[in-house]
Amino acid sequence: MSITSRIIRTPKVSDRTFVLPVESRPEEAEEPQEPQEGTPAQEEAQAVEPVEAEPEPRPTAVEIDALVQERIRTFEERYQTEREAAYRAGFEDGRAQGLKVGRAESKEAIDKFAEAVDAFLEKQRALVQENEAALVDLAVAVAKRIVGACAEMRREPVLLAVSDCLGYLRDRTRVTLKVNPKDLDSVREHRKDWIEAVEGIGTLTIEADPALSRGECVLETDAGDVDARIEERLAMLHSALIEELRTPGRT
């Protein structure tokens, strides 16, 4: 048997309250009444009582770190993309500008080089013109040494000189041929050949002249003399070269 406490209020005699134990009966126990669905009171209670929303769960440290790393990766990818695009644009602009500048500099360098070449050639031409006489003298001196050396070693130079001089004679009635004493014998060996080869020769006298060098000869006639000395021939060559160099329009 259950025992509950019941408060019994008595006429106010004093300020004290007495609690007496009483025995509860089954039939006197009040059964709880179930609220009827759909009643105005129940609907009003539901309308008045607020419904508390469940709080959202707070992210963990691992989730926060993952979110931060994801945003960092996104930012880096975007930065790299924009950087590459800017680099490509700048590279193309720089390449075009560089080619333009390079072509201009190359043209300028080529023009300067051409000017330098023209100036050099002009100086060279002026130098040649200023030293024409010296160059001719040098060429004649070299030729003289070569001819002299050949005349000393071989006898053909004097024979050729005599043949050439005989061809220049206008009066061949009486001819006196003078040569170096060392060339006398070889020249006399060809006396008959020259008389037969050259038309109009009456008499041909061959004499030795120590004043002449090997390879030189002088022909004397009643109409004049023909000097075939090496010095004279080289002097003629010198004059001909100088005249050629001074001719206008020569290349």
TrEMBL record:
UniProt record, GO biological process: bacterial-type flagellum organization; protein transport
Domain Flagellar assembly protein FliH/Type III secretion system HrpE: 108-235
Region annotated Disordered, chain positions: 18-61
Pfam families: FliH
Gene Ontology terms: cellular component: cytosol
Biased segments, Low complexity type: 35-50
InterPro entries named among the record's database cross-references: Flagellar_FliH/T3SS_HrpE, T3SS_Stator/FliH
Keywords of the record: Bacterial flagellum biogenesis, Bacterial flagellum protein export, Protein transport, Transport
The family this protein is said to belong to: Belongs to the FliH family.
Function: Needed for flagellar regrowth and assembly.
PANTHER family per the UniProt record, alphabetical: FLAGELLAR ASSEMBLY PROTEIN FLIH, YOP PROTEINS TRANSLOCATION PROTEIN L
Record protein name field: Flagellar assembly protein FliH/Type III secretion system HrpE domain-containing protein
Organism listed in the record: Handelsmanbacteria sp. (strain RIFCSPLOWO2_12_FULL_64_10)
